[in-house]
Specification:
The longest helix is centred in the N-terminal third of the chain and has 13 residues, at 72-84. The chain is α/β, with parallel strands linked by helices. It has helices spanning 6-9, 43-53, 64-69, 72-84, 93-101, 105-114, 131-143, 169-181, 191-197, 201-212, 231-243, 260-264; strands at residues 24-28, 59-62, 88-90, 119-123, 147-152, 186-189, 217-220, 248-252. Helix 8 (169-181) packs parallel to helix 10 (201-212). The protein has twelve helices and eight strands. Strands 3-2-1-8-7-6-5-4 form an eight-stranded parallel beta sheet. The chain has a single domain (20-264), classed as Alpha-Beta Barrel (TIM Barrel).
């Protein structure tokens, strides 16, 4: 029988979901965060985009400004649309930070769940937040049937009086341990940690991979508003070079989503006999 699709003709591999490796996590800014972004993702654009790209995507960060200022019912429809295409939206660490600064963490988690979110990202902090408090917040999320991502940031993200410095592998692992013990399914490493690591990246992040497993880590790329043009591509190329093409990556913009697989394993190379 003759092949009936381009995928079959060109022998393009499939990586069916759910998958533990080769994940790509999207960043959805909606209509917010101008003038840093020119990309927009309303409901009409989203349906068309997901018809094309959903097979390549696993999770999506919906930015906090969009969560706070968009209409409730519109947000519920957006969350449901992603879930219908098996792309899971999550509340990111800045949502937690905004809630913490206003003293409304518990009610913010509950409100996020009411919007349909089934995943929330927490972050490492200084001792300003006690271990007992963190455990209570994680328990609340879990009791609401939410899954947890633990993101590692350089600590100056939490306390701007601190000088930026690279974390050791032991520090990253110690910071993630309580969340993992409480059921966090993934540890995200912020792109600035890689910038600070420099030539030590392979050694220190490699130790983290050896301990946690590559399938339990996701590496964040630089957003367009935070770095030079195409810096995101340099980030992803570095991750795939150092840790292999199956590494999970995050913070990918919609216009970048279809290019990630090419960076992992260029399709345009000559076919080997």
């Amino acid at each position: 029988m003759a092949p009936n699709s381009m995928r079959e003709v060109f022998e393009i591999p499939r990586y069916p979901k759910p998958r533990s490796l080769r994940q790509t996590w999207l960043k959805d800014v909606g209509y917010d965060e101008a003038p840093q972004y020119i990309e927009r993702m309303g409901l009409l654009e989203l349906e068309d985009f997901l018809e094309v790209a959903a097979d390549r995507l696993d999770y999506v960060k919906i930015v906090t400004t969009q969560i706070l200022f968009s209409p409730h019912d519109w947000l519920k429809r957006k969350v449901a649309a992603y879930q219908r295409f098996q792309v899971e939206p999550y509340l990111d660490h800045s949502f937690f930070m905004q809630a913490y600064m206003r003293g409304v963490v518990e009610s913010a988690i509950e409100a996020g769940r009411a919007l349909g979110f089934r995943v929330i990202e927490f972050m490492n902090t200084t001792d300003e937040v006690s271990a007992a408090q963190w455990k209570a917040w994680r328990k609340l999320a879990l009791d609401l049937d939410m899954r947890i991502i633990q993101e590692h940031h350089p600590l100056y993200h939490w306390d701007r009086s601190l000088a930026p410095r690279a974390s050791s592998a032991d520090e990253i692992l110690r910071g993630a341990a309580p969340a993992l013990e409480d059921g966090a399914f993934m540890v995200m490493i912020d792109h600035e940690e890689f910038d600070l690591q420099g030539e030590n990246t392979a050694r220190e992040i490699g130790k983290v991979i050896d301990t946690l497993g590559l399938e339990n880590l996701v590496f964040e790329a630089t957003s367009p508003k935070e770095g030079p043009p195409l810096y995101w591509r340099d980030n992803l190329a570095k991750y795939f070079e150092l840790f292999g093409e199956n590494a999970n990556v995050a913070n990918v913009m919609p216009s970048q989503a279809m290019y990630v697989e090419h960076l992992r394993s260029p399709f345009t190379r000559e076919k080997r006999e």
